[in-house]
């Protein structure tokens, strides 16, 4: 396979080649059933085994802490922005949000449609170029939860440490960095992620939550928007995105083969280190957007001296086989998304291209 692009897409994003090839091998005839996994009943034993395996594999990678359940939902992380307040932000309560950037703001917007919110910490005054200080959050007695975005995909910031919220459940949108490193699930009431960045293809949203939280849905909520519906039915109340769940299971197997989360973290640090070093060693030709201690290992954002030069960078990079290096339309600049599945060699090639570009335009 020599025609694979250097894929730095932000999402949907690169998947491990091994996973794609394995899926290809069993695409038409899934393990002797005479049909694709996409063509079989989600109530049959074959699919259900895959579904349950994906959930238990995910918990196992996180150390199998007791009292947590995995849900496979639809509607993306964006639907979770609404479902979280719909289920937990009941009358008389308020919900705390850590205002760290574009995705946090989208979550806040939805919560405000449902109930009372407060900003627990913010880095808005720093234009979100660092993560907010969450060292000592002051939480009101009626706080339903605190919501944090572990990695801001657009700005390129990432939390290194999570706040201690005591008995108030901490909920994290981990869409763009779930399973990029080990983390202590027990710190969280709930974490969730759209799969299309670090877990698999689009179409499934993974929720991992404390079982008791998943029993709290207010009685007036429509069936499909209630966590208890999905928890009580093992995410099989309605037809799940079966192919996406199958792919998530395959990606999880691949993560195990990389040495689990410790192995993945080591690789991610090497990858991000290589790229940030190239930026920092360019004598100001490339400028990292984010403060040192807040830099993301998943989304590396950087700028050139002018928008014109950035346009040229995107154009020439595309001609050289690189995909997805244009920054998000809302912030401009350049961004290399280097999720788990992006190979070290892609970053090595990018760093070489950057050096070459600087020599011809610097
Ligand atoms: C991509 C992304 C989302 C949106 O995910 P959808 O599945 O498209 O709804 C939310 N939060 C973060 C941090 C993201 O990176």
From TrEMBL:
List modified residues, type N6-(pyridoxal phosphate)lysine: 197
- Transmembrane ranges, per UniProt, are none
- Matching InterPro entries, A to Z? Aminotrans_V_dom, Aminotrans_V_PyrdxlP_BS, Pser_aminoTfrase, PyrdxlP-dep_Trfase, PyrdxlP-dep_Trfase_major, PyrdxlP-dep_Trfase_small
* Transcription regulation recorded as keyword: no
Report the cofactors: pyridoxal 5'-phosphate
> Binding positions for L-glutamate?
43
Q: Tell me the ranges covered by the Aminotransferase class V domain, including all copies.
A: 6-350
Which GO molecular function annotations are given, in alphabetical order? Answer: O-phospho-L-serine:2-oxoglutarate aminotransferase activity; pyridoxal phosphate binding
Residues annotated for pyridoxal 5'-phosphate binding in this entry: 77-78, 103, 153, 173, 196, 238-239
Entries under SUPFAM superfamilies matching the protein: PLP-dependent transferases
Q: Which UniProt keywords apply?
A: Amino-acid biosynthesis, Aminotransferase, Cytoplasm, Pyridoxal phosphate, Serine biosynthesis, Transferase
Tell me its EC number(s), please: 2.6.1.52
Query: Which reaction equations make up its catalytic activity?
Result: O-phospho-L-serine + 2-oxoglutarate = 3-phosphooxypyruvate + L-glutamate; 4-(phosphooxy)-L-threonine + 2-oxoglutarate = (R)-3-hydroxy-2-oxo-4-phosphooxybutanoate + L-glutamate
Its main subcellular localisation, reduced to a broad class, is cytoplasm
Instruction: From the UniProt record, give the pathway where this protein acts.
Output: Amino-acid biosynthesis; L-serine biosynthesis; L-serine from 3-phospho-D-glycerate: step 2/3
> What is the cofactor note?
Binds 1 pyridoxal phosphate per subunit.
Quote the subcellular location field of this record. Answer: Cytoplasm
Keyword presence, Cytoplasm: yes
Class of the enzyme per the UniProt entry, highest EC level: transferase
User: GO biological process: any one?
Assistant: L-serine biosynthetic process
Q: Report which superkingdom the organism of origin falls in.
A: Bacteria
Listed PANTHER family: PHOSPHOSERINE AMINOTRANSFERASE
The free-text function statement in the UniProt record for this protein reads: Catalyzes the reversible conversion of 3-phosphohydroxypyruvate to phosphoserine and of 3-hydroxy-2-oxo-4-phosphonooxybutanoate to phosphohydroxythreonine.
The Swiss-Prot or TrEMBL record describes its family as follows:
Belongs to the class-V pyridoxal-phosphate-dependent aminotransferase family. SerC subfamily.
What's the protein here called? Answer: Phosphoserine aminotransferase
Organism name: Paenibacillus macerans
């Amino acid at each position: 396979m020599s025609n694979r692009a250097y894929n730095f897409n932000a999402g949907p994003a690169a998947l491990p080649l091994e996973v794609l090839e394995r899926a290809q091998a069993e695409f038409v005839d899934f393990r002797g059933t005479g049909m694709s996994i996409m063509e079989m009943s989600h109530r049959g034993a074959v699919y259900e085994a895959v579904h349950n395996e994906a959930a238990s594999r995910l918990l196992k990678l996180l150390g199998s802490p007791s009292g947590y359940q995995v849900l496979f939902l639809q509607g993306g992380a964006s639907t979770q922005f609404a479902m979280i307040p719909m289920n937990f932000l009941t009358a008389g309560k308020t919900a705390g949000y850590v205002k760290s950037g574009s995705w946090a703001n989208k979550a806040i917007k939805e919560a405000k449609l449902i109930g009372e919110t407060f900003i627990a910490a913010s880095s808005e005054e720093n234009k979100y170029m660092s993560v907010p200080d969450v060292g000592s959050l002051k939480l009101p007695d009626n706080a339903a939860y605190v919501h944090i975005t572990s990695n801001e995909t657009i700005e390129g910031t990432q939390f290194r440490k999570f706040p201690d919220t005591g008995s108030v459940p901490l909920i994290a949108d981990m869409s763009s960095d779930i399973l990029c490193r080990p983390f202590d699930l027990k710190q969280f009431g709930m974490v969730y992620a759209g799969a299309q960045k670090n877990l698999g293809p689009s179409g499934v949203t993974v929720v991992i939550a404390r079982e008791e939280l998943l029993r709290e849905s207010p009685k007036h909520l429509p069936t499909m928007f209630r966590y208890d519906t999905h928890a009580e039915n093992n995410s099989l109340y309605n037809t799940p995105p079966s192919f996406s769940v199958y792919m998530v299971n395959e990606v999880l197997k691949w993560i195990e083969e990389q040495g689990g989360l410790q192995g993945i973290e080591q690789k991610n640090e090497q990858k991000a280190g290589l790229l940030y070093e190239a930026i920092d060693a360019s004598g100001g030709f490339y400028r990292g957007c984010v403060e040192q201690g807040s830099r993301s290992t998943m989304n590396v954002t950087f700028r050139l001296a002018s928008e014109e030069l950035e346009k040229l960078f995107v154009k020439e990079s595309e001609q050289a086989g690189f995909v997805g290096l244009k920054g998000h339309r809302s912030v401009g600049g350049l961004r290399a998304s280097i999720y788990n599945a992006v190979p070290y060699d892609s970053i090595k090639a990018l760093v070489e291209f950057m050096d070459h570009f600087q020599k011809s335009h610097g």
